[in-house]
C-alpha cells in the first residue's frame, strides 16, 4: 500500500479554536479565538490566496508560468507568494512602503517581486497601479477586493469549521474588515445555519492606523462587500487594539497582530452586554510580523 502524504497546500485551513482564559474575567460567556496564524504562510489570507489561484486555474483563466499581480498591505501578499510558489506562477506584489520589514522579507523569500508605492498613495494607489500594469499586459490581477473566490474560501472552509468546532452553539462572530472576504464568507455560511448568529465587523476609528483593516473611501469599497451581511460595525481605536494585542501575548500566550487585538477588544466589549453567549473572533495572523515596529515594546 502506498502512503499518501499531504502537500503544503493540504495544510491550509482546519485551524484551532481556543478559549480565552483570563481576559474575559468573570462571565457566563464563552470567548473563543480562531488561530489563523497556524496556516502555513502564517495568516487567514492563505485560504483566499490558494482559492483565487486554484479556482482561476480550473476556469482556464490562468496557467502555470503566468505572471500574477496583486495590491496588498501584507498578509495577502505573503499568502499569494506562497500559493504562487506552490503552483508555479510568477508573482508581482504592490504595497505601501510603510509595510513592516518582516512582511516584505517573507514575500521575497517565497520568490515574489515587490513594487512599493508611497505611504501617501497607500492601498488605493497600489490598487490603481496593479490595474494599470494589467492593462499594459504585464500580468493578471487576481483582485482580492472584487474576486468572489475570496469570500468563497471562507464560505466553504472557515465558516463550516467554526460551526463544527462550536457544535452549532456560536452566537456571535467578530472579524476585522480589510478586503471583507473573511466576514462575507463566514457570515453567509453561519446565517444559513442559524439566522440569529450576530455578525460583528471591525473598522478603525478615524485617524487610527491598524495594519490590515481600513475605512475605505466609497469609491474603493471592496466589491465583494455586502452591508446586509454585517449586523454591527465596531469602530476601534488604535491604542485599545494595541493594548489588547499585548495583553493577549502576556496573559493568554496568544501572539498576534494589531487587527486581531482589535477584534478581541471588540469581543470583550460585546461580552459585557450579553450573557450565556458563545463568541468567536478571528486571530488573523502572528505577532512576529510586527516586531520590527517596536509595538510589543510598550508597557501595559
TrEMBL record:
Q: Which reaction does it catalyse?
A: O-acetyl-L-serine + hydrogen sulfide = L-cysteine + acetate
User: Could you mention a single GO BP entry for this protein?
Assistant: cysteine biosynthetic process from serine
Pfam family of this protein, just one? PALP
Instruction: Name the needed cofactors.
Output: pyridoxal 5'-phosphate
UniProt-recorded Gene Ontology molecular function terms: cysteine synthase activity
Tryptophan synthase beta chain-like PALP domain mapped to chain residues: 9-285
Q: Which domain of life is it from?
A: Bacteria
Per UniProt, where does pyridoxal 5'-phosphate bind?
75, 178-182, 259
Entry EC no(s): 2.5.1.47
Class of enzymatic activity (EC top level): transferase
KW Disulfide bond (keyword) present? no
Query: Where are the N6-(pyridoxal phosphate)lysine residues found in this chain?
Result: 45
Pathway(s) per entry:
Amino-acid biosynthesis; L-cysteine biosynthesis; L-cysteine from L-serine: step 2/2
Report the SUPFAM superfamilies cross-referenced here.
Tryptophan synthase beta subunit-like PLP-dependent enzymes
Keywords attached to this Swiss-Prot or TrEMBL record, sorted alphabetically, are:
Amino-acid biosynthesis, Cysteine biosynthesis, Pyridoxal phosphate, Transferase
Keyword Amino-acid biosynthesis tagged:
yes
Q: Which PANTHER family match?
A: CYSTATHIONINE BETA-SYNTHASE
User: What's the family?
Assistant: Belongs to the cysteine synthase/cystathionine beta-synthase family.
Question: What is the designated name of this protein?
Answer: Cysteine synthase
Originating organism: Pseudomonas batumici
Amino acid at each position: 500500500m502506498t502512503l499518501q502524504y499531504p502537500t503544503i497546500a493540504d495544510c491550509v485551513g482546519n485551524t484551532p479554536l481556543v478559549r480565552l482564559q483570563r481576559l474575559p474575567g468573570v462571565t457566563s460567556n464563552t470567548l473563543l479565538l480562531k488561530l489563523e496564524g497556524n496556516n502555513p504562510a502564517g495568516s487567514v489570507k492563505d485560504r483566499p490566496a490558494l482559492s483565487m489561484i486554484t479556482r482561476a486555474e480550473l476556469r482556464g483563466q490562468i496557467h502555470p508560468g503566468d505572471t500574477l499581480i496583486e495590491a496588498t498591505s501584507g498578509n495577502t501578499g505573503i499568502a499569494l507568494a506562497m500559493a504562487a510558489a506552490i503552483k508555479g506562477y510568477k508573482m508581482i506584489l504592490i504595497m505601501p512602503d510603510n509595510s513592516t520589514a518582516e512582511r516584505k522579507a517573507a514575500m521575497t523569500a517565497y520568490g515574489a517581486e515587490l513594487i512599493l508605492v508611497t505611504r501617501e498613495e497607500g492601498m488605493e494607489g497600489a490598487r490603481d497601479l496593479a490595474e494599470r500594469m494589467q492593462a499594459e499586459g504585464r500580468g493578471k490581477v487576481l483582485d482580492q477586493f472584487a474576486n468572489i473566490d475570496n469570500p468563497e474560501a471562507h464560505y466553504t472552509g472557515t465558516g463550516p469549521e467554526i460551526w463544527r468546532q462550536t457544535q452549532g452553539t456560536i452566537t456571535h462572530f467578530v472579524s476585522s474588515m480589510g478586503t471583507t472576504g473573511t466576514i462575507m464568507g463566514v457570515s453567509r455560511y453561519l446565517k444559513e445555519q442559524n439566522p440569529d448568529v450576530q455578525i460583528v465587523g471591525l473598522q478603525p476609528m478615524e485617524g487610527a492606523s491598524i495594519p490590515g483593516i481600513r475605512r475605505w473611501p466609497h469609491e474603493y469599497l471592496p466589491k465583494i462587500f455586502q452591508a446586509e451581511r454585517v449586523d454591527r460595525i465596531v469602530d476601534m481605536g488604535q491604542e485599545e487594539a494595541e493594548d489588547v494585542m499585548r495583553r493577549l501575548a502576556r496573559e493568554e500566550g496568544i501572539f498576534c497582530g494589531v487587527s486581531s487585538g482589535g477584534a478581541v477588544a471588540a469581543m470583550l466589549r460585546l461580552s459585557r452586554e450579553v450573557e450565556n453567549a458563545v463568541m468567536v473572533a478571528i486571530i488573523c495572523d502572528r505577532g512576529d510580523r510586527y516586531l520590527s515596529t517596536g509595538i510589543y515594546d510598550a508597557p501595559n
